[in-house]
Specification:
Elements lengths: L23 E8 L6 H8 L8 E3 L18 E3 L3 E6 L4 E7 L10 H5 L4 E6 L7 H11 L3 E6 L9 H7 L8 E4 L4 H21 L4
Helix pairs in contact: 1-5
């Protein structure tokens, strides 16, 4: 390739540039079990082209990966998803979606580093996969909110029943969402930001 000619490496689109008014950036991680919608959420809400590391699923995962409820899924995140959204003219969120398959969880420690908060996506058909996810966040002291993603065949439960089943503290927000919709995904992020603000005001967030 001739870097002095017409065949040059394209730069970012104009819309991908960080707004000049931005004064603060916050790292947020989106976590959850396999197939709960992490990649979809990052893609739906990101104002830039999302970076994904999806690879085609192979027979090597049979008997290893739990894909209950996601039997038609043909690709999976093997490293991370990345996106960005401006909450205000001055505040920007960097979104990092974690891999859901347990064999890739060793990557989580690096993704959690420097994160101010997290969204835990939950599928009510597989609540049990959320316990390890939330446990890891609690071990690292990362505050989180729980977002219940809507699936057509997923059972619905009252919020307090979910709180009891997930053994959540009373102050941790639980919100219903449809991660395919940008407005719904943004509502989840705003719920997290309000929660982080309340923790900061109370002195619980350091």
């Amino acid at each position: 390739m001739d870097f002095n000619g017409s065949d040059t490496i394209p730069g970012p689109r104009t819309g991908d540039h960080l707004p000049q008014t931005a004064q603060a950036a916050v790292k947020i991680v989106i976590v959850g079990g396999f197939g709960v919608g992490k990649t979809t959420m990052v893609g739906s809400v990101s104002e830039i082209r999302p970076l994904t590391t999806e690879e085609t699923m192979t027979q090597a995962g049979i008997g290893v990966d739990d894909n209950y409820g996601s039997e038609t899924k043909t690709a999976t995140t093997v490293a991370m998803d990345f996106g960005r959204i401006s909450i205000t003219d001055k505040l920007v969120l960097y979104l990092f979606g974690t891999p859901g398959q347990e064999r890739f969880w060793f990557l989580w420690n690096g993704l959690f580093e420097g994160a101010l908060g997290a969204v835990v996506l939950v599928d009510t058909r597989r609540l049990e996969v959320s316990f390890d996810v939330m446990g890891r966040l609690e071990e690292r002291g990362v505050p989180f909110v729980v977002a219940v993603n809507s699936f057509p065949d997923a059972p619905r439960y009252p919020t307090e029943e979910l709180r009891t089943a997930l053994d959540l503290a009373p102050e941790i927000p639980i919100i219903d969402c449809d991660v395919r919709r940008r407005a719904s995904s943004k509502d989840v992020l705003m719920t997290l930001m309000r929660f982080l603000h309340s923790l900061a005001m109370s002195g619980a967030l350091t």
